[in-house]
Write a structure and sequence with these properties.
Blueprint lengths: L3 H6 L35 E5 L2 E4 H19 L6 H28 L5 H9 L5 H4 L13 H9 L6 H29 L5 H12 L1 E10 L12 H10 L8 E10 L4 H20 L3 H8 L12 H7 L4 H4 L14 E3 L2 E12 L2 E3 L5 E3 L4 E9 L7 H16 L4 H8 L10 E6 L5 H8 L6 E6 L2 E7 L6 E11 L4 H17 L3 H10 L5 E7 L12 H9 L10 E3 L2 E11 L10 H24 L4 H8 L4 E7 L4 E2 L3 E2 L1 H9 L9 E2 L3 E10 L9 H16 L2 H6 L4 E3 L6
Antiparallel strand pairs: 1-2, 1-22, 3-17, 3-21, 4-14, 4-16, 5-6, 6-13, 7-8, 9-10, 9-12, 11-12, 15-16, 18-19, 20-21
Helix pairs in contact: 2-3, 7-23, 9-20
Length: about 725
Amino acid sequence: MATIGKLRERSGAVIFIIGAAMVLFIVSDSLNSNQALFNGGPETSVGEIDGKEVDAKYFDAINERFLNNAKQQRNTAELSAVERIQVNNQTWETIVESQLLEAEFEHLGMRISEDEMNDMAYGPEPHSYLTQIPAFMDDNQKYDPNKLREFINNFDNVPAESQTNWADLIDEVKSDRLRNKYFAMISKGIYMTDLEAQDDYIGNNKQYNIKYARLKSADLPDENYEVSEAEMQAYAKENDLRYKEDERGFQYVSFAVEPSAADTANTRNQIADLAAEFATTTNEAAFARLHSDGALAEDKFYSIADLSEANLLDAALMDQVFEVPVGHVFEPTFELGTFRLVKIVAEEPQTTVEGEDGKSAENFKTCFRASHILIKPEGDNDTAKAMEEAKKLMDRVKKGEKFAELALEFGTDGTKDKGGDLGWWEDGKMVKAFQNGVNTMKNGELKVVKSRFGAHLIQLTAEPLRVRRKIAIIEKTVTPSEQTESDVYAKAAEFFDRARTAQAFVDATLEMDLNVGLAENVKAMDATITGFTDGRELVKWAFRQEEVDMVSDIINIDNSYVIAMLTEIKVKDDLEILGKETEIKTAIVKEKKLDELEAKMKASYTNDINALAEALQVEVESATAVNFATPVIANLGNEPAVIGAVAALGDGILSQVIRGNEGVYVVLVEGGSEVTMPPSFADYKVKQIKSKATGARFEISPALKKTVTLIDTRYNFY
């Protein structure tokens, strides 16, 4: 019998296995293949990983698999621009991480032996990739290694495509096992000594009471300090304020292609012509399917409650649908750019039929409409009081007060804001006590009933409906005509002809009185920009430019013609000063204040905190429950340097001058809580090590990325 490993050698590497749809998109060993991944020059590359180019065709193949997977998960035929970019980023990150890990595996000499492969196939804990394949499952949908043996024994008779797919699966199993080994090695390398565990435990549990004298930087006016350009440059370098990735900024003018008044009038004429034909046709469903741009009513009878839930009709038409005769075509309505025609096709009356149990029943349920005011009991014994309140409200309605206004004031459920209106519902949808009360009411009648929710004041607002109707709907959306689109393009072309340079761009916007959009801090793989849901073409244009003040061609996005002018180019690793001037100046001013305050406090320093406070003309303040694990001190704020000093000080010892975030301090510890030490730190160590090991898994990829140079030029393709 051939082994798993030898079968791998007898086949190629392409897609999947035996027609089974396994949705496992782990990038395989082919990531190491210079032919598959690292071939071609800049024109066919989507980026570089440590100096090696990533072939665009290979990237696109992987990305297509991820896109199909995303569509299946979202149950959609098309993804939005944002979703497509999210998938594209997933592809890039997967390839980068896989390539970096493959290099680690090679460097460490990590391999998967034949015995290990066979154990993953036939051992007590088979690999999950194999156990998910239907072809290897028994009648109870459980993994059966004998099914796999049968496949391997019959391998020479397996179709060629399945053989190559099998190879890809084996690559994925190997890659996954190598990853798990690598992560396990790192996790096992995390350790904590008994002394570390003890210090950590004390730091997390001990609390201190302190006194302190402080000088606050906020007490010094900012205007007393000046910041030079050189200081800003030095601060940015010292604090490594650099762009984490390339960014662009641009201005743009857009000309939206929207329907004109003439387009609306033309569609209104079309719908009027259709209305005449609609009224005479005898096959309304087919006529609607042929002429409607939008929603279609199902070819069935609707109750008024059904229509309310289906949201097929305007509210104004809802009640009228059951008042007009069959065959009636309503006047066209217009809302949100769409004309709508509605025709009453047929009616089904409520009749009594004999059920399977021999009992008579209606062929469909009656529909009711009412408003109510619910008075909830305040306690278990207050239902009678609630009933009294409801009856008082009924008297007020009878005397002329408006039901809806009383519902808004006294109602206690979600209908109060709708004047108590419950809308239409089918018999049986309300609690029994409520429904029984409604069943005997007449339109306009008032009644008080009690249910498990409380007391209800009910007003029937329509006659019960005991018919269902079939309707047909035609929708016509007003769209821009070719002439309208041509006119808009002409305006865009006029602006483009006048805006070939940066200054001309600005002048043309003023002369033509156009609104200018602004896109700032745009990243290379951003999908949207302000004003547009799909701004990829603008983003791609911006990142292909090498100089500011460049003006784009006319770009068609989101039914608009757009002309843009590049205003900013921010390059990864350049100092990030532009746009952060205020933030940097504020930080530098704070440091200057702290320098001044630190010198002042050191000049007055004494071992007596009260004497020091008097010399500085400040109060001695206090804080309790200061804890090393929490960097915030009550009434003091986020001052980790102070807390660190407190944890290191002995009781009754005055600290030296401490430079904090918002001032300078001298601290005196005055006791604190005692920490009850556990008999052993073994369990504590296990818990801390497990927590750190879990976190380490998510730090591996970022750490590896810092060791290589990554160049991402996907914007040339996507």
